[in-house]
Design a protein that fits this description.
six-stranded antiparallel β-sheet; 20% strand; globular
């Protein structure tokens, strides 16, 4: 993890572990038009200086359904759709983690990990209250910005342009938390799927790590909270200058 005192440890492509969570502010999940309005309000002061969109490595093929968002037709919503749950139930938490990571290790378009129950509960509460944030991804000498949205137990990632245009079918990456083993094994299983050629598998894994940090680290969550609940007070340039997300991104290469 990229915090000064990392509470977890790397598990496969993602991060395993939990930490104390900041308290989630109250509030019902926002509608998509409201989220678009928040994005516009939060980024309006520095919109011209945002990273330019980069050319895709391949033609777009993704969709919100394929990004595994719960409540969206076509996405894997249950663990039983991707794994043999009765067999996993017989194994220890340690063995379940090993099986899960091994199952997806060689899948080029997928990343996988596990999450402790305590982290899942805290992340779910915080992400439900503050379901959206922006993340800069390095590209050459510059960067591009993606927007993530939390929907049920899943995150989906879009370019800023796609999100602002309301194009729910244009998704670059999505990851889901399967919760069937929370009570029996104190474990949530994480699986992410690349939906286009815009991102690499390594970049996808970093996006998952950054999202988990965003909701579990007080210093990061304060920016997420302001972005969602006080959008007009969110200063994009201040966030880039003080929080230094690009430096955090590069630091993961040696983590």
């Amino acid at each position: 993890r990229l915090r000064p005192s990392p509470p977890g440890r790397v598990a496969g492509a993602l991060v395993l572990g939990a930490s104390a969570s900041p308290s989630a502010p109250p509030g019902a999940p926002a509608s998509r038009p409201m989220l678009r309005a928040r994005l516009s309000a939060a980024l309006a002061p520095g919109l011209r200086r945002l990273g330019r969109p980069m050319a895709r490595r391949t033609a777009y093929t993704g969709s919100a359904a394929e990004a595994l968002a719960q409540g969206t037709a076509g996405g894997a919503k249950k663990l039983s759709e991707v794994a043999k749950v009765p067999l996993l139930m017989k194994e220890s938490p340690v063995r379940v983690r090993e099986i899960w990571l091994e199952q997806w290790r060689e899948k080029e378009l997928m990343v996988a990990g596990t999450m402790a129950k305590e982290e899942y509960n805290a992340l779910n509460a915080n992400a439900t209250a503050c379901p959206m944030f922006i993340v800069p991804v390095p590209r050459g000498e510059g960067f591009m910005n993606l927007v993530w949205q939390f929907q049920g137990d899943a995150f989906i990632y879009q370019t800023i342009d796609a999100f602002r245009q309301g194009n729910s079918g244009q998704v670059e990456f999505g990851w889901v938390m399967f919760t069937e083993l929370l009570d029996s094994h104190n474990l949530a299983l994480v699986r992410g799927t690349l939906q286009s050629g815009l991102l690499t598998r390594t970049e996808a894994a970093k996006l998952v790590r950054l999202a988990r940090e965003a909701y579990m680290d007080d210093a990061t969550f304060k920016w997420v909270r302001k972005f969602n609940l006080q959008a007009r007070e969110f200063d994009y340039e201040e966030y880039m200058r003080k929080h230094r997300p690009l430096e955090r991104w590069h630091a993961m290469d040696s983590a």
